[in-house]
Amino acid sequence: MNDVMSRFTDWATFYMSNLIVTVLVLIIFMGVNRLLLPQIEKLATSSKLSEEARKKTYHTARLITGVITIAVLLLVWGVDFSGLIVLSTSIIALTGVALFASWSLLSNITSYFVLLFQNSYTKGNFIRIIDGDNYMEGYIADINLFTTRLITKDDEEIAYPNNLVLTRPVIINPKQHWQGIGKSTDKQMPVQPEQAREAQKD
Prior knowledge:
alpha+beta
């Protein structure tokens, strides 16, 4: 028994700095779980999202913090990534592209968290999304990890990708409601000749 304790003491003494950093990382991880995650859940609740969407938000945030914590702990304990430097760099590059490129499916998850922090995209708001010459509009029924669900005036349901909601011009609560889907050019009123002359004079 004394031999085991002696070996453990020697091991702890040798790796004292690693143990201290590990404890600090775990304290930060627990602090994030206690402080940041409840705030994210509170934002999801204030956005009036469905219970399923709130659970997905919470679990996704916990997964991200857990993966980051494990990666930091591996670095603290000297896991040798030198032989995998090319592979790890490629994975990081691909992950970055996947999370932020507009054509990527995973970028919808990144956009979901951005939309979560925007009060303009609260459930029940009426929005109009301008996509080139086309548009679509409706009430925000829910925001999922990948799509924003809109309900038109005709009770039609539109599932629109989250990343496109962020990258397209969006009008929040417009004064006039148009059709659910159409061409924005059809809604532009023609300018009368008299109005054109007055505009030129001004």
